[in-house]
């Protein structure tokens, strides 16, 4: 299971990197979400994969999964959700304002020389 | 009152929320924002005194015991930084009353500033590595808002890059925490430190080095160390002066703080690879910053590159890891936060008067604005560490620490860097403030006197900080002591 | 092109209330079982979004004339207030209180201040989601 997860996470990171290296803002934003999904899966895997039991510990529980990685992932998902939303709005705004979604054209040196 | 150390986080948080409701009346917003910033300063000062008297303060949120719940920890280092943050925030809020423009004020500017302070103070105070990530995100989210607010073309363009860089670094942060969790199985900083020393006591597993480098990349991106500073000059250039001052004084320093904290707690027992790496990177950061600062003819850019120099100098002190250098680093860190904020506000004022930030089209401001000229002169001297101003003591201790642990080259470069910093900042003074008076079209619309209050306040504070070094030294050395001896922190948190 | 939304609109009128009811159930279920303010909030905003798809933004704003930003702030106030309430009793921030009370009709009730915190989360989630949708979908 860990091996499979490692491959999935690797593929997610790979696609995220590919998407973020492209020129269109929308693709970049999708890339960042894919990257965060990869990171979340990594937390889950690193916390130790164990199937078949609930994360809640009863008084006499014989088996339980570590609830902490799940709590971390939930927090990280909420944060990623917020950042993605903001980024989307920004991408949309700058498309309207600057008239392009091509990062090459946003290169500008205004104020840099 | 056991909740005392959360007040510097809680007050700005509540203020930020209340300000959302008050968006109709700008006057009310200013009052609330100003009063709460002032209150935060007082509370933070009381907190520093409390830590001085009673030692490290801890608070287990929600009453969960230390390694299981989230713990907030105020040692002297973090308490001092919280106090400095609050002072810088107060100055920036005062400057914003006249210097930011009503358009931005209507769009929840003060709320965003307050949430930024929540993030920064929280990051300084938290004793939990994942909570540090959360406070980083609070801080970054507010900084996204602040950098976009106003929506000019350059802001939109730069904020896309800024957000992208920070999203990637946040993902890396989560990844590093995941690896760390798989190694130690805990998130409490003190507990991690204990577990890591158990592991590295037996053998020297390579994973600790990997973790160290990962954290260095994450915090290096935030703190703008070489070679990860590439995003900083462009992004910090875009927003208006008070926002620039907040960013320049606080955001990179949170990265520096995190590097210092993690290295003094986690990786001090590592094989030495990370220390070597950090020293080399710190020196390269100083050099890269100096080159930028000398090369540009734009007042904002010069000061922005000086942030990078300062980060390098502080990290050099941290990396040498002896008590002298660490004391120097803490001293210099606080000095740099105050003086960078002052310089950004002054430079912003100059740019507002001249209508451009290009140094070639400024000149002769001392004729009509002597106050501005001399305040800038003092700030410039303090920045480059001329005795008895505040930069001197810190740099002296850092260099001394560098020599005593035989990093001669590094210490020499830090010494030379102060000279070059002086040249770069005097370039502004000679070309912009000295010289033949010019008249500027935009100058009459600038409420000069009211805008001078905040920078003068900061510069005066910085002078007292330098002249009164005897008075502040016990506080600083107490901070450095916790950094060199992780057990003080661990004992306070885990209560063993 | 004018589309015929009759099926969607009719179905929405029925389903909307079911979703809202379910979201309220999920919200209260969150105390001991899976659920809570976050999921409940997302479900409610999903319901509003469905309304928005079936009809249009103007109508939704007429039906639900809230300033969603204020809703976010109100939610934050609830959440912070619940946490800060602990300061009054000199217990650590975010410490919750709970107890059982007996009400005449409803019987035994287990009350917990975490519900108030969750209510804050619920309001924040609905507010934030709707703000985003209005910002992106708002201007044509």
UniProtKB/TrEMBL annotation, chain A:
What top-level branch of life does the organism fall under?
Bacteria
Q: Principal localization?
A: membrane
Q: Which UniProt keywords apply?
A: Cell membrane, Membrane, Transmembrane, Transmembrane helix
* Species in which this protein is naturally found: Cytobacillus purgationiresistens
**Where in or outside the cell?**
Cell membrane
Q: Which InterPro entries match?
A: CPA3_antiporter_subunitC, NUOK/Mnh_C1-like
What is the designated name of this protein? Multicomponent Na+:H+ antiporter subunit C
Coiled coil location: none
For this chain, the family text in UniProt reads: Belongs to the CPA3 antiporters (TC 2.A.63) subunit C family.
Topology relative to the lipid bilayer, per the entry, is: Multi-pass membrane protein
| Any Pfam family the entry gives | Oxidored_q2
TrEMBL record, chain B:
Question: Where does it primarily localize?
Answer: membrane
> Which species?
Cytobacillus purgationiresistens
- Identify the InterPro entries for this entry: CPA3_Na-H_Antiporter_D, NADH_UbQ_OxRdtase, ND/Mrp_TM
Annotated NADH:quinone oxidoreductase/Mrp antiporter transmembrane domain ranges read: 128-420
Q: Where in the cell is it found?
A: Cell membrane; Membrane
Q: Which UniProt keywords apply?
A: Antiport, Cell membrane, Membrane, Transmembrane, Transmembrane helix, Transport
Q: Which parts of the chain span the membrane according to its record?
A: 6-23, 30-48, 68-95, 107-124, 130-151, 163-187, 207-231, 243-260, 272-296, 303-325, 337-359, 371-389, 409-430, 451-476
State the annotated membrane topology for this chain. Multi-pass membrane protein
Q: Quote the PANTHER family the UniProt record gives.
A: NA(+)_H(+) ANTIPORTER SUBUNIT D1, NADH DEHYDROGENASE
- UniProt keyword Transmembrane helix, yes or no: yes
What family is this protein classified in? Belongs to the CPA3 antiporters (TC 2.A.63) subunit D family.
Keyword Transport assigned to the entry: answer is yes
The domain of life for this entry's organism is Bacteria
What protein name is recorded for this chain? Multicomponent Na+:H+ antiporter subunit D
UniProtKB/TrEMBL annotation, chain C:
The alphabetical list of record keywords is: Cell membrane, Membrane, Transmembrane, Transmembrane helix
Q: Where in the cell is it found?
A: Cell membrane
The membrane topology noted for this protein in its Swiss-Prot or TrEMBL record is: Multi-pass membrane protein
Q: Does the keyword Membrane apply?
A: yes
- Pfam families associated with the record: MnhB
Domain (Na+/H+ antiporter MnhB subunit-related protein) spans 7-131
Q: Which PANTHER family match?
A: NA(+)/H(+) ANTIPORTER SUBUNIT B, NA(+)_H(+) ANTIPORTER SUBUNIT B
Query: Which NCBIfam families did the record assign?
Result: PRK12573.1
Family per similarity comment: Belongs to the CPA3 antiporters (TC 2.A.63) subunit B family.
Indicate what this protein is called per its UniProt record: Multicomponent Na+:H+ antiporter subunit B
């Amino acid at each position: 299971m860990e091996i499979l997860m490692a491959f999935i996470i690797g593929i997610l990171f790979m696609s995220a990197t590919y998407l973020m290296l492209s020129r269109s803002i929308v693709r970049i934003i999708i890339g960042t979400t894919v990257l965060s999904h990869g990171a979340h899966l990594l937390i889950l895997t690193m916390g130790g994969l164990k199937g078949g039991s609930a994360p809640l510990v009863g008084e006499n529980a014989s088996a339980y999964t570590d609830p902490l990685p799940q709590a971390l992932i939930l927090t990280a998902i909420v944060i990623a959700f917020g950042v993605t939303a903001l980024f989307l709005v920004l991408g949309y705004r700058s498309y309207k304002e600057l008239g392009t979604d091509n990062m090459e054209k946003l290169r500008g040196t205004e104020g840099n020389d | 009152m056991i909740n005392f150390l959360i007040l510097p986080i809680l007050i700005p948080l509540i203020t930020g929320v209340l300000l959302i409701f008050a968006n109709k009346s700008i006057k009310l917003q200013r009052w609330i924002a100003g009063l709460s910033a002032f209150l935060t300063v007082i509370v933070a000062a009381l907190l520093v005194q409390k830590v001085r008297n009673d030692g490290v303060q801890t608070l287990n949120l929600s009453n969960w015991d230390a390694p299981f719940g989230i713990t907030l920890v105020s040692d002297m280092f973090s308490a001092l930084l919280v106090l400095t943050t609050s002072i810088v925030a107060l100055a920036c809020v005062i400057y914003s009353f006249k210097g930011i423009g009503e358009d931005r004020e209507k769009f929840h500017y003060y709320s965003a500033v307050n949430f930024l302070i929540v993030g920064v103070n929280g990051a300084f105070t938290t004793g939990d590595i994942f909570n540090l990530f959360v406070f980083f995100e609070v801080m970054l989210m507010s900084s996204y808002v602040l950098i976009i607010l106003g929506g000019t073309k350059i802001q939109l363009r730069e904020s896309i890059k800024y957000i992208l860089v920070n999203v990637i670094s946040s993902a890396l942060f989560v990844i590093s925490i995941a690896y760390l969790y798989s190694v130690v199985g805990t998130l409490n900083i003190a507990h991690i430190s204990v577990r890591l020393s158990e592991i590295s006591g037996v053998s020297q597993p390579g994973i600790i080095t990997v973790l160290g480098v990962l954290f260095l990349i994450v915090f290096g991106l935030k703190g703008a160390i070489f070679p990860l500073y590439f995003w900083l000059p462009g992004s910090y250039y875009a927003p208006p002066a008070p926002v620039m001052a907040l960013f320049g004084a606080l955001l990179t320093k949170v990265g520096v703080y995190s590097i210092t904290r993690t290295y003094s707690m986690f990786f001090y027992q590592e094989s030495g690879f990370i220390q070597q790496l950090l020293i080399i990177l710190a020196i390269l950061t100083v050099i890269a910053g100096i080159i930028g600062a000398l090369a540009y003819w734009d007042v904002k850019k010069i000061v922005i590159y000086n942030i990078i120099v300062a980060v390098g100098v502080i990290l050099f002190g941290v990396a040498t890891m002896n008590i002298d250098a660490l004391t120097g680093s803490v001293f210099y860190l606080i000095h740099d936060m105050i003086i960078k904020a002052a310089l950004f506000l002054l430079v912003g004022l100059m740019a507002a008067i001249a209508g451009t930030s290009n140094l070639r089209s400024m000149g002769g401001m001392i004729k009509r604005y002597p106050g501005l000229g001399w305040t800038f002169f003092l700030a410039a001297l303090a920045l480059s560490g001329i005795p008895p101003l505040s930069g001197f003591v810190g740099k002296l201790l850092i260099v001394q620490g560098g020599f005593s642990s035989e990093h001669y080259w590094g210490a020499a470069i830090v010494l030379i860097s102060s000279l070059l910093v002086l040249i770069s900042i005097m370039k502004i003074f000679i070309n912009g403030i000295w010289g033949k008076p010019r008249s500027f079209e935009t100058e009459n619309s600038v409420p000069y006197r009211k805008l001078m209050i905040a920078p003068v306040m900061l510069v005066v504070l910085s002078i007292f900080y330098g002249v009164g070094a005897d008075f502040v030294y016990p506080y600083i050395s107490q901070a450095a002591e916790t950094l060199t001896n992780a057990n003080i922190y661990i004992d306070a948190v885990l209560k063993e | 092109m004018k589309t015929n939304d009759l099926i969607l609109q009719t179905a929405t009128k029925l389903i909307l209330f079911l979703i809202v009811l379910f979201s309220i159930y999920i919200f209260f279920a969150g105390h001991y079982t899976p659920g809570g303010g976050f999921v409940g909030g997302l479900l409610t905003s999903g319901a509003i979004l469905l309304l928005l798809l079936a009809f249009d933004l103007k109508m939704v704003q007429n039906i639900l004339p809230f300033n969603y930003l204020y809703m976010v702030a109100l939610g934050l106030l609830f959440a912070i207030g619940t946490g800060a309430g602990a300061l009054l009793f000199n217990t650590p921030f975010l410490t919750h209180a709970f107890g059982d009370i007996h009400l005449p009709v409803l019987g035994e009730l287990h009350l917990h201040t975490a519900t108030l915190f969750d209510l804050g989360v619920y309001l924040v989630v609905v507010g934030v989601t709707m703000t985003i949708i209005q910002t992106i979908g708002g201007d044509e």
